[in-house]
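Suppose a colleague, Dr. K., hands you the sequence of a protein chain of 243 amino acids and asks what its three-dimensional shape might be. Before reaching for any lab equipment, you can write down a predicted structure in token form. Begin with the sequence itself:
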Amino acid sequence: MTTSIRIDHDVPMQTRDGVTLRADVFRPDDGSRYPALLTRTPYGKHGYFHHDFVSAIAAAREGFAVVIQDTRGRFASDGDYVPGIPEGDDSYDAVEWVASQPWCDGAVGMYGASYGGRVQWEAAIAQPPSLRAIAPGIADASPINWSERQLKGAVMLEDTLSWLAMMVVDIAARTEAGGGDASALRAWTARAGTDLDGLLRHLPLRDALPLHSDRRSSNSGLSSSTRSHQVRGHLTCSGTSNA
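The predicted structure, expressed as tokens, is then:
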């Protein structure tokens, strides 16, 4: 067991289209090369270092390099976040970047639950050469189209809106960091936390939420590709990226 570990925060990598993604790296501090465990999350890598699924510190002490990466457009990573966008290319690039680092022996495994499980399935489909194993937990049934949030064509609103309320917190922060006005986003998030039933009952739904299909705010930070990756039900999320 390694007694000394090194932690590097916000280590950058570039995707194939030039977007910088950032990760925290936990590894034995002895200059040797180790197999790596990678997880990618939209929920903030700062909260994953002692995840119930894998403790980064414990794994590093057992001889692994652990890489916890914010996904595109989330928290420390650059780019535009689009709900439901495929993660295969970014996951492939992340696996191969990890494998190329001087502290990695070239073998990379992935772990994580929920969204962190979804990105593993998409990585496996993309087949990065250095990926040796995946360990997804409670992963979405459909990795790309959010079909798991629908029931025979009807959007499961309570599940979807609860998830979006959690995601909007970072979108609001990025909006403000980019000089935009996030007051509507923060007001909506506050209401979702105290009156979700009221939001679910409001008609028309798009007038009650920072979601829309036809209208686009002038300070939206979501890329134009949002239109081709809309959430089923033609709802997209409006926010501003600082990237």
